[in-house]
Amino acid sequence: MTLITELFWGPLEIIYLLLLFVVGLAITFLFIPPIMKYMRKKGNVGFDIHKSSRPEIPESGGLSIVVGLIVVSIISIILFPYFLNIILVFLITIILAGIIGLIDDKKKLRSRYKIALTIFTGIPIFLANYFEFITISSPNLPFLGKTRVTMLYPFLIPFIVAVFANTTNMMEGYNGEGSGTCLIAVCFLFVCSLILFSAEAIILTIMIISVLIPFYFYNKYPSKVFPGDVGTLCMGTAIACIALFGSLEVAVFCAFLMHIFNSFYIISSVRGFLESSKIRESKADIIMLDDNRIKASYQKNAVLTLPRLILAKGPLSEKELVNNFYFISIICGYFSIIATLFIVWTQERIELYYVILVIVIFIVPTTIFLYKFNRIRGIIFLMIFLLIGGVIFLIIIDVYVMTLPFSDIDLIIVNIPINILITVMLLIPCLFLWYVITIKYFWYEINKMQKKEFGTLKQN
To answer: What are the extents of the domains in the chain?
Structure first.
């Protein structure tokens, strides 16, 4: 990560950033209509299944995101030559994600092949870092500072890219859901990059926001275009690049907590990865009503998803459901800013009372959101429980486990610290406890709604 203060940026660089933003907006807006027309002409369309009329909507519209990012990447290389290597690797990674997404849109790859290919998408970043073409440092954590996984972390890079790409892909299925939540997340990550003074993250977030805004305009309810896997994989990969290149791993984790929750529910219930189209085919999590509202499935074998959990309190229209996603994303954005401020405080660059002040300020809108959208209260409390528990776990590991005098395991290409293996072993029961709590809460809401409906029917 390069600090802005090291580069002595001035008004000219601000103008360059504004130019990047405007070009990204213009190019993406320009390309979306012809891409929609082309996809419709080629028969690459999908049914909008959450509407009784089931209109045909052009698929693979996320190709416009790829095109937009390619153009702004080339321009950013010209405007910011200092970051040539980073942006070039970013560009190659995005193109690979786009190609894999297009192949999947056409061939409908099985989940295991898609995961393998998305891991391959992260290989250019791994190789660029391995051969010192770019430098990716170990993550900085709140309260603890830089982690002690310098040798191991680079080998995790392809898996980090795959996780974010597939997590974004799994959080798609409703009008504006994927693009809207990603746009909200990246906007908050832009604020985090300013707090952290991360020049790479500032450039990347502006590039990504500039192409997501026009796409969201066409993808929001009622959708005129669907992103397809080319769009979802590209969005997830781009956000993974923000985390890796801009040293915003913790902020990205917090901003993407809703997506991670949804993926965790799905993976735990089907024992693997399953995207929305496959869920509908076999273990539908929702049921469409005649009035175009959506209700949660009460079937025991139905997939556990975040939409199903929100709908457990009663049916909603598609637009109302997506609004719940947006407000969860905003609160997750608050978490990302607070986490970033704690990192800066750990680095002794700000005083603790600034962090406390921001937390107090965020309590007000969060309280309003939770009052207005009561369906998300339990989800937010679960997230807070996870974040606080995670911090406590990391502090215990840092104080008691990482200080143990064990030798590393030499695997020739990488040394694995025994301390890390112990940490993983301790993490498993903690994750299992969180799993039990979240699943218990899930079925508590489902059963409560069933009793409510049964009581209503009995009265009638």
So the answer is: 4-459
